[in-house]
Amino acid sequence: MSAPDPPHKGANRHDSAVTPTPPELPIDEHELLADLTEMLTIPSVSGSPAEPEVQAWLADRWRREGLDVDQWDIDLPSITADPQFPGMEVDRAHAIGVTATLHGSGGGTTLLLDGHTDVVPPGDLDAWSGDPFVVRRMDVDGQDCLVARGATDMKAGVASMWAAVRAVARAGVPLRGDVILAPVSGEEDGGLGTFALLRHGVKADMCIVPEPTELHIVPGNGGALTFRLTIRGRAAHASMRTSGVSTIEKLIPVFTALQDLEAARNVDVDPIMDRWPIAYPLSIGTVQAGDWASTVPDLLVANGRLGVAIGESVEQARAELEQAVAAACAADPWLAEHPVDVTWWGGQFASGRTDPAHPITGIVRDEHVALFGAEPDVYGGPYGSDLRLLTGIGGIPTVHYGPGVPPAAHAPDEYVPVQQVIDAAHSLARMIVRICA
Ligand SMILES: [Zn+2]
After folding, report:
1. Tens digits of per-residue pLDDT, 361-407?
2. Domain residue spans of the chain
3. Whether 188 is catalytic
4. pLDDT tens, position by position, 284-311
């Protein structure tokens, strides 16, 4: 469902009658797809040695194109000790930050283009039709697509933001504001890269994150908090199981309580989340219990993910889950004596929302409409993303707008339609000129 923004007449200087955008900036499609293909062949799985490799590769390319490149090592011990650090779920020995700036003449609006270059692992290789890091161009549902891990989420977005900046630079369009390209790592497991970018002192007036939206506009999203439940029971020989207490049985009332909590938390949701069957999912992802088939399991560890509502604080969301678990424990004689332990670890994504009164959503929509003649949807994402760090910690009004098909993300045979990648480069180029000229 679309939730169109109110008009922003007179709200800012971008509403001047003349839009300084040339009708079409020259996007080199061949170069764009070649760049994307090269990025996709670098297996930059979150936390792997190749994760910084793709950023370093981009930095090198951008240096050669004459952009002002800043590349630095992220001080992991100090950044992870920061009280606002958003969390990390994989071990990392090394991480880098990169920005590449196309400088304006001064006095204009600075636009940040932030895109993550880490990708999730490929999962079951048998579910893929080929090597996840060898790019294949093939037909998917009647569309010409590139298939590889990271195609949709979100190397296509990074390649198109780069192509857009290149087109503006090569066309010699005079800009007053700076355009900053920032490829970041660690988005998939918490947001290390964007957090480090903000702590490095990068500032901007607006930000577009070309995460996969099929060129719709996402000005906010729900959050996601990773939690762990630890349940303790009593081991016994399975032949005398009634003398033990099975943690698997004790998970059942807790699980039911969490299902009820999920339903209660999704009764009244922000209208921009209306399109989702469950706006703020609460899900258990892993359960480990017991170590022997003929033993009553005395320890159960479950890991899950709690959705955070738009407008809800992380503390509020955590308290609701902790209270629901505590109530389930109070109603069970064993759990009342041995309460389930709840801990929060790994990715802690707050929700985020760009102020609907800020012009960025209208600018992105107007430029999209001017180019394609169709109105994009404006909706909230049900997933956590770097948007909440950019709007929350950075204070930078941010929207997601990029190529890629959300259901293809994290899936086998991840794909991106080629035409969407090209279209994104064209529209991002227009947006750069509109915002920074
Ligand atoms: Zn992503």
Report:
1. 999 999 999 999 999 999 999 888 899 999 999 999 999 999 999 99
2. 13-221+351-436, 223-349
3. yes
4. 999 999 999 999 999 999 999 999 999 9
Q: What is the pLDDT of residue 23?
A: 55
C-alpha of residue 406 to centroid of ligand 1, in Å: 9
Give the distance (Å) from ligand 1 centre to CA of residue 66.
28
Pick the CATH number of 223-349 from 3.30.70.360, 3.30.870.10, 3.40.50.11810, 3.30.160.20: 3.30.70.360
What six digits make up the tokens of 272?
A: 């921009």
Neighbours of ion ligand 1 (CB under 5 A): 153-154, 211
- Cα 250 to ligand 1 centroid, rounded to whole Å: 36
Alpha carbon of 158 to ligand 1 centroid (Å): 11
Residue 250: predicted pLDDT: 98
118 is catalytic: yes
- Given 188, 214, 262, 414, which residue is catalytic? 188
CATH topology of domain 13-221+351-436: Aminopeptidase (3.40.630)
DSSP string, 261-329: HHHHHTSS--GGGTTSSSSS-EEEEEEEE-S-TTB---EEEEEEEEEE-TT--HHHHHHHHHHHHHHHH
Is the four-CA dihedral 385, 388, 389, 394 of positive or negative sign?
positive
Q: What is the pLDDT of residue 335?
A: 98
Exactly one of 51, 118, 153, 211 is catalytic; which is it? 118
Q: Quick one: pLDDT at residue 348?
A: 87
Measure 282 CA to ligand 1 centroid, in angstroms: 20
What is the value of pTM for the model shown? 0.85
The token pair that represents 46 in the structure block: 């979150």
Angle of CA points 151, 152, 156, to nearest 5°: 65
How far does the centroid of ligand 1 lie from the alpha carbon of residue 407, in Å? 12
**Token duo for residue 335:** 């759990």
Question: What's the confidence (pLDDT) of residue 346?
Answer: 85
Q: Spell 67-83 as b/e; 16+ CB within 10 A means b.
A: bebbbeebeeeebbeee
Low-confidence ranges of the chain (pLDDT < 50): 1-21
Q: What is the CA(238)–ligand 1 centre distance, in A?
A: 45
Distance CA 332, CA 329 (A): 5
